[in-house]
Amino acid sequence: MAETRKIYLVMGVSGVGKSTVAEEVARRSGGIFVEADAFHPAQNIEAMSAGIPLNDDMRWHWLEALCLHVRSENCGSGESPVFIACSALKRKYRDFLRERLGPLFIIHLDGDRELILNRLQARKGHFMPPALLDSQIGDLEYPSQKEGACVRFDIAEPIDKIVSEAFSLIENEWREKPRHS
Predict the structure, then answer these.
(1) Which long-range contacts (CB under 8 A, 24 or more apart) does 123-128 make?
(2) Element (H, E) at 168
(3) Where are the alpha helices (DSSP H) in 30-107?
């Protein structure tokens, strides 16, 4: 993977719209969208589907598989930005991603528990049941500027507004910093 690659982590608990935002911002910027859920091993999906929250041991293999994909040729050229939709709830998970992928620009989607719960209850065809929301909220360690570039969006805002503002921030970040290190 080329050193110039920008990695954007769109993070938050299940139901905040990570995939929607990451996919649309990737499309607008000509980047690559990566859905972290696609790298969960079957036992993780089975556990979550049964209402069993993942523990740290269950997450490390998933995060490693995600990193291997992002560093692989299957994830496009090393110059295209990558937008990863991934819960990355704990700082140690984000540190793990940074150690393997380099600096992350964090887009944290957050909001009122009831709004998120309503979204989860309305969502069809996803393995993550609404019953696991509180375990995710309990695991969430809010990112800070100590982790690098980080911005929080309130999901009560319309999705189009969040996408437009995130895309604008990314465009400005790219203009302000040279793409080579």
Answers:
(1) 123/15, 126/14, 127/37, 127/45, 127/48, 127/49, 128/14, 128/15, 128/48
(2) helix 159-176
(3) 42-49, 56-71, 91-101
C-beta of residue 104 within 8 angstroms of C-beta of residue 7: yes
Q: How many Cβ atoms sit within 10 Å of the Cβ of residue 63?
A: 19
Residue 94 near residue 147 (C-beta atoms within 8 A): yes
Side-by-side strand order, sheet with 7-11: 32-35, 82-85, 7-11, 104-110, 150-154
- Which helix (H) or strand (E) element contains residue 88? none
Report the distance separating Cα 158 and Cα 61, nearest Å.
Answer: 34
pTM comes to: 0.88
Interhelix angle 91-101/56-71, rounded to 10 degrees, is: 30
Contact yes or no for 15/120 (Cβ under 8 A): yes
Six token digits for residue 147: 């982790």
pLDDT, tens only, 143-167: 998 998 899 999 999 999 999 999 9
CA–CA dist 87, 22 (Å, integer): 12
